[in-house]
Amino acid sequence: MKPNTPTWPRKTREVRNHHFDSTIWNDFRFRPDDIVIGTYAKSGTTWVQQIVGQLIFAGDAEVNVPELSPWLDLRVPPKEQKLPMVEAQTHRRFLKTHLPVDALVFSPEAKYIYIGRDGRDVLWSMYNHHARANAEFYRVLNETPGLVGEPIAPPPASIRRYYHDWLDRDGHPFWPFWESIRSWWEIRDLPNVLLVHFADLKADMAGEIARIARFLEIEVDPDRWPAILDHCSFDHMKRNAARSAPLGGILWDGGAETFIHKGTNGRWRDVLTAQESEKYETLAVEKLGPEAAAWLASGNGSRGLAQGTATQGSPTSELMRRTG
C-alpha cells in the first residue's frame, strides 16, 4: 500500500493593500532548505525570526534580523528590488510573511513556522505599533507607487474603539484576522508545517526553541545554547532593538524600542469589560471552531507547563534534554 501523499495548498488569489503585494510569491524561486515564518502580525513574528536566526548562525550576537529575514510580501521596496536581494543571499534563508495560506505559493520542500497569539493581545500590540507610527510610516505606505485600495490612516485615540472596529470589520485597518488563523490551522498536520504559540514561548522558551530546532533539522553545538537563549530573550532584544526592528525603527516615534515594546499578554484585562472580552471569545469559536479557538487562546500549555512558570533546571540542561 502506498503511503498517503499530502495534499499541498495551492494559491487561489492575490492579496494587495497598503501593506501587501502577494504577487511577489509568483516570481520567488524556492530553495529546498528555505524557511518561511508566518503570522497574522504582532504575534511574536520578530521573536521567532530572532530564534531562527540564532539557530542558523549559532548564537551570533550580530545577527540583523530585518536585513537577513525580509518581509517578502510587504510591497515596499517593490519586488523588482527585493527579489534580487533575496536571491543573492547565500545563507539558509528565513523569510517572513503575514499572508493567509491561499495567497502564498506553497513549497513542499520549504519549512513553515506559524505563530499564533490571542487576538486581544495581538490587538493591544497592534495599537501601540500603529499609534506610535510617524510621518515616514504613512509616507512609505500611502505615497509610494503600487498602493492598492484605501490608504492607512492614524488610529483613534481610544483603544477600546480600536478593538471594536478591529472585531466588527475583521482586522480593520490592517487585514482580516480570522482567515489567517484558520488557513494555517487547517494545514497544521502537513509534515513541513509547525505551529508555535506566543504563550508557549513565554512559558518555556528553551523548550520551544529546542522544538523549533528539531523541526528545522538544525544541530546546535551544545556550547552555543547559552548564547542562543540569551540572544532570544526579550531583555536582549530590547537592548539591541535596532537589530530587530525594520529599518532600525525609523518608522516609529521612539525608534526601535517602540517596535520591541513590552512582549506581555493580558493588558486588555484592565480595559475591556467582561462583555467586551466575551465578544472576542464568541467570535473566535464562531470563526475558527472550538479546537482552533482554544489553541489560539492559550497554545498547547508548553507541554504541561503553566503559563509564566520557568523550566526545571537550567535553561541549557533543559534544552539539551529536549533535543537529545
From TrEMBL:
Q: Where is this region: Disordered?
A: 299-324
Q: Which residues form the signal peptide?
A: none
Q: InterPro entries this protein is in? A: P-loop_NTPase, Sulfotransferase_dom
The record's section on Gene3D superfamilies has:
P-loop containing nucleotide triphosphate hydrolases
Q: Which keywords does this chain's UniProt record carry?
A: Transferase
* Domain Sulfotransferase span(s) in chain numbering: 32-288
Q: Which domain of life is it from?
A: Bacteria
Instruction: Kindly indicate whether the keyword DNA damage belongs to this entry.
Output: no
**In which residue ranges is the amino acid composition biased (Polar residues)?**
308-317
**Which molecular function GO terms apply here?**
sulfotransferase activity
Question: What PANTHER family does this protein's entry cite?
Answer: SULFOTRANSFERASE SULT
Family stated for the protein in its record:
Belongs to the sulfotransferase 1 family.
The protein depicted here goes by the name Sulfotransferase domain-containing protein
Origin species, per record, is Thermohalobaculum xanthum
